[in-house]
Amino acid sequence: MFLIIMLVATVVLVISLARRVYFQSLLEKKAKFNFAPVLGGALILGFLSPLLKTFGQSLVFEMLLTSLVILTFISGRNGLTTKGILLPNLVTKLLDFQQIGKVSVTPVTAATDQNLFLATFFEKQSARPHALVFEMSLNDLLGWLKKRLPDETEIES
């Protein structure tokens, strides 16, 4: 039974990894690196590491750990594609622009003179927020978003 669970988890992670690599190749506006998925993946790896003694010789378990390690480190790269928003999740999720009801863009005050903006995207159905930090001018970010978001989407800045 445990082998079936590992096999299913491995397939899900490998598919997520392939999707992540594909969607990252489509990024037009890259957000700042997000370390939350890295920390989450590190915790999961910490819980799985004691199983190395038991399942270390299993090819499925090795594939599971390998795909999890790779996915953990590349899942922090997110941003905007022409198809939607690549979110910082271990299981790759692309939020379609049609599902966004509201966007809030606020400046981030930092010690440096960089143009940092926090863009929070709210889903229409659940009002769930997804936040990404961009390093670019406000006009560039808003102009890019206005071209791709539906007309009814509210943009606050």
Main attributes of the structure:
alpha+beta; four-stranded antiparallel beta sheet; transmembrane helix; 5 helices; 43% helix
SS-based structural class?
Answer: alpha+beta
Shape: elongated
User: pLDDT under 50 segments (min length 5)?
Assistant: none
* Major β-sheet strand ordering: 1-2-3-4
Distance between the ends: 52 Å
**Helix content range:** 40-55%
Helices, by number, come to 5
Return Rg in Å. 18 Å
Please tally the β strands and state the result.
8
What portion of the residues fall into strands of 2 or more residues? 15-25%
Number of domains: 2
Strand-and-helix sequence, N→C?
A: HEHHHEEEEEEHE
Mean pLDDT: 88
The main β sheet shows up as: 4 strands, antiparallel
Note the topology.
Blueprint: H1 2-25, E1 29-30, H2 36-48, H3 52-55, H4 59-74, E2 79-80, E3 84-86, E4 94-96, E5 100-107, E6 116-123, E7 129-135, H5 138-148, E8 154-156
Parallel strand pairs: 5-8
Antiparallel strand pairs: 1-2, 2-3, 3-4, 5-6, 6-7
Helix pairs in contact: 1-4, 2-4
Question: What this model shows, in words?
Answer:
The structure is a single chain. The chain has 157 residues and is an alpha+beta fold. The chain folds into 2 domains: 2-79; 80-156. Helix content is 43%, strand content 23%. The chain contains 5 helices and 8 strands. Strands 1-2-3-4 form a 4-stranded antiparallel sheet, covered by helices on one side. It is elongated and about 55 Å long.
